[in-house]
Amino acid sequence: MTPQSCVTIQKEWDIVGARQLGRDIAKKMGFGTVDQARIATAISELARNIYLYTENGQICFEVVENMNRKGLVILSTDNGPGIDDIGRVMEDGYSTSGGLGAGLPGVKRLMDEFDVQSEVGVGTKIKAIKWAR
Amino acid sequence: MDDVIKLDAANYKDLLKHYIDTQDEKSLYGVEQVSKSFIKNHILPEEIVNLHIQALAELYPEMSEKFQHSMDFLLEAMISYGLAHQEFQMLREKQYEIKSEISVAASMQNTLLGTTKPEIEGLDIGIVSVPAHQMNGDYHHFVKGKDGSLGIAIADVIGKGIPAALCMSMIKYAMDSYPEDSMEPKSILKNLNRVVERNVDASMFITMLYAQYLPCEHKLHYASAGHEPGFYYDAEKGTFTEIETKGLVLGVSSDAEYEQYELKVNKGDMVILLTDGVTECRDGDRFIESEEILEVIKSYEDLPAQEMVNKVYKHFERLQDFELRDDFTLLILRREV
């Protein structure tokens, strides 16, 4: 496991920074163009949620390796309002941005593994992994 | 499935090459087929762009770098389309599931609320009841009394679809529990009113007309709970008159009383009972007038009652471009001898 590299999200511009860092890591790991684009889109979605709904949050990247595969982990952490009903936000068609944003179901589709933990008033932690093929 | 994709990918490249060389229609038709296969195998737009990029790189290794970048740019632009497509796919599957659940419910409703048109000497009965959506919020029921009389209930829940249909099952079971010899219309409505008032949400109302036909006396006794008034056809004069009704809809007030009326039915006369799905048929943006319904009914006067109601339904179904806005129930009762 490599040490984490993180981007703090405060301004909209930080979303671009997070995408850039994530893409660089993905490229280095040998992800193809399609997967690179998917990873960048997932980062956008997560970073945008932080930018729109919370004061402060971070997107961090980690490379995990086990016996036969390598994966890129995206960790999104914020101390925002939290999600009350996770089941609901994971439902297709629920996305508050009126269907245009991919929302969390979109992130789940773009990545291979996905996990959310959230507590109202405390914050939200999302972990998503893409495995290199 | 991966083999299919590989095959299609190879095919795509050959077709592309051929098209670039000849610009012929055959390769375009070919790519249409490949595209359909991609859709069938859930291949997303970004993957097709990527396939295109790879095919180009193989065909033209000397392709300009700028052009390559432009293709990568297009690929990025496709990602969100791919997501939207997946979301629609999922929602479509969900919709399909819901639809099939409702159709199970609808057939269950038919079993629960089913009633058979009775055969009564000297009486010709026609009934058509068609829901606007899968489940019917209109209801009709025939009861043959021990004294030879015929009870007819026709009802409409204000509202459509599933809630209305659920509500009707309750009405049916309440009616089934009444003894067969106490079929006086006004007391049936009074009883049902109490059932509805106690058990149904305050925002839901039911209108009903209950009629009892006495074949020996050729008389129709009836009472109405705010239901769409029916019509009476005088065969001798060839005229229709609206049946006089007065009464509060079911479920509003627990102590409502219902007035009972009597009608003498002569040979050849008809009693027409209906729901507002019939009277509120629309021709474009215009509500039809009740005279139009009566004219249509009159034009089929010579047919047996069942054929009449079928023809009238077909007429208004067509008028409304085969799309009912409300449940449609029409019942015709004619004294034959």
From TrEMBL, chain A:
Pfam family, one: HATPase_c
SMART domains membership: HATPase_c
Residue ranges of coiled coil: none
GO molecular function (one): ATP binding
InterPro entries, sorted: HATPase_C_sf, HATPase_dom
Domain named Histidine kinase/HSP90-like ATPase: residues: 34-133
Highest taxon listed in the record's lineage: Bacteria
Protein's name in the database: ATP-binding protein
UniProt organism field: Virgibacillus halodenitrificans
Lineage, broadest ranks: Bacteria, Bacillati, Bacillota, Bacilli, Bacillales
From TrEMBL, chain B:
Keywords: Hydrolase
Protein name per Swiss-Prot or TrEMBL: Phosphoserine phosphatase
UniProt organism field: Virgibacillus halodenitrificans
Taxonomic placement: Bacteria, Bacillati, Bacillota, Bacilli, Bacillales
UniProt domain PPM-type phosphatase: residue ranges: 124-335
PANTHER family per UniProt: PHOSPHOSERINE PHOSPHATASE RSBU, STAGE II SPORULATION PROTEIN E-RELATED
UniProt KW Hydrolase keyword: yes
Domain of life: Bacteria
Single Gene Ontology MF annotation: phosphatase activity
